[in-house]
Structures
1.
Amino acid sequence: MDFFTKITSTATTDKLNAVIQGRLTWESIPKKFRPLANRINIVVSSTLDSQAALNQSEYPVRFYCTHILKDYECDVFFPNIDWKNFKEIT
């Protein structure tokens, strides 16, 4: 959680990071910690056309994607990403 908090809360004084999460993840956060402080909290559902929403937004400048190198049993997955629309920075 320390890495997640650091990477998602670090911002300049005039900008905030966004945390995009599914509804069930949002509901799993204890109410006293919602919304996550110092971040824009975005909750999505399975009925949202996320690609259309991203195409209309002027804000996604950086996209941090953490690859978890372990398989977990789950029923919700992040959509495939067209990586040619992004530039990798390290």
2.
Amino acid sequence: MPAPPGISLVPLFTRDHELARDDLWWLHEGNRASRLGDWKLVAAKDQPWELYQLSTDRAETRNLAAQYPNKVRELERLWMGRLNEVRQLATSDQAVNKGTVNKEE
């Protein structure tokens, strides 16, 4: 059985340890985002992508998507890749609950 995507956060709680990560990805109720370094691509449900450079705009007030279309495409490809990984996991045998349910009668 393949391991699920992601990394364990246990080392962060058990000793001084820095979390090494390449990128962050999320999807919640249609809202989506991808972060790579100081760049964050984000979109509300059914809205176009917005791009922010967090090192100079921590509050995400200046959408840079029009100025950096290549960065938008790069982060969108990254986001789609992660989405495909999650979909593949969700439809694999690993996602099937093989346990039993005890019902009181």
3.
Amino acid sequence: MVTTTTPPPYTPHPPSARARFAHWATRRTIRPLEHVVPDGELGVKVTRRVLATLMAGAGTTPAGVEVVPVDSTTESFGRIKGEWVRPATPRPGMVILYLHGSGYALCSTRTHRPLVSRLAKESRVTVFSAEYRLAPEHPFPAAPEDVERAYDWLLAQGWRPDQVVVAGDSAGGHLTLDLALVLLRAGRELPAGLVMFSPLADVTCTLIAEREQAIPDPMISAEGVRKLFAHYLLDTDPLHPRLTHVVAPGEVLPPTLIQAGGAEFLAADAHHIADMLATSGTDVRLEVWPGQMHVFQAANRMVPEADRALRRAARFLVTTLQARAAATAGNDHEVTA
């Protein structure tokens, strides 16, 4: 059996010269755009196009990875959209459910295909990258409802929860935590592990605004994020339990890896989630990469730290799946003995 060693303890290093240049260039070219892009639905549509172009140039899609679109409608699950992303030699009995970032209004499986493909190749694990409905066309709770259905659909394809790692970035990290809590509180079997890149925690943007006073994000202001979330929230109270997640002591979730950039607007959110999970009794690891921007893992053309971080995430999820498989096999042996 092929094994993968657990990633060594994370040791922070100063950002590379390329990362420092990317930060400088982003602050001078990308952040000023929020003062030019119009507000409202037109602004969202313009931002979607701009962001898709930027992400296409920031990351690479590796060779040897197969992408198969999915768009099916069934009576049991409704419409399921996404894509299978398969490495050349996938490990058997393992799958990743990936939830792309979006600010709940932007991006898609297509914009995140380079990141997801690299994760599939590094881990040698098949990925189902799920599409979910976006605001302003589809405000809360459309996105978490779609994610729940995607997870149940994945299980209906023959995967067991102990064979699944749920991963996501930014709003996708928010959805990852939401799904885990929904499953836990429903008394259902949990997936083997969770991976979150630059996860969102606070939709009120209080943490983001406080962070901005100390370390302004090179991409977007707290006010820009707040405007984006307004399309998703509409009149919903941001303290709704599926928007502001509270993990109580004793609500133990699967082993979790959180990675965030030290220069980004969601660094405080990442710390908040890690603190909640640690208090709950969850095995959680937090890596804050100095000088890195939001979801820097997607920008391997720009910063060398992107591939390094993704390799660590791949090793974490594989060892987590292997450990869960071994535990499941041991439990089955005890039952039959």
4.
Amino acid sequence: MQIKTASVAAVSASVSLNIHKGKTKVLKFKAENSNPITLGGETLEDVESFTYLGSIIDEQGGSDADVKTRIGEARATFIQLQNIWDSKQLSTNIKVRIFNTNVKAVQLYGAETWRTTTTTIKKVQVFINSCLRKMLNTDWPDTISNSQLWKRTDQLPAEEEIRKRRCKWIGHTLRKSSNCVTRQALTWNPEGKQKSGKPKNTTSGNRSRHEKDE
């Protein structure tokens, strides 16, 4: 990793680009080598997680932290728009459209690359259902089933929506040139031995399952 970092710095410098040492962080994922990474004689900071393009990357390699943050930000947005959900002048159709573009878009940002689990899907779905019920003012005892709720608000189950988003993103990525970094990252098979136990869910694993389903 030290060699690659130095190489990137050298190539960047050749075209008058400099790497900002203070803004550059190092996150090691299952790395056996714990030696610090240096750049220009300065040691780069080791971190357990960082935010890149709005998504949280952590040393566990999962999506739990990102999903939790996304739900928190979506909840804050939903609360800010409370006057819209309480409005008697706006139709349910208008409220749902506002919800999709202002709340749901925040919650599912980056969902195409989430390492989804049953727990992850459940958390996402519980939040969406809660928002939709508040919009329709269907609190206990005037409850309706989830299927009725989704039908009245023209919503797909969270698992199906995330699956469709992922398939669309994968298709878009695989149509890119073979030397595209994004495509290479998607199809990359890292070397190394897998630890004992049940294999973790991965993006490539999700892709394989989607292809079988199709």
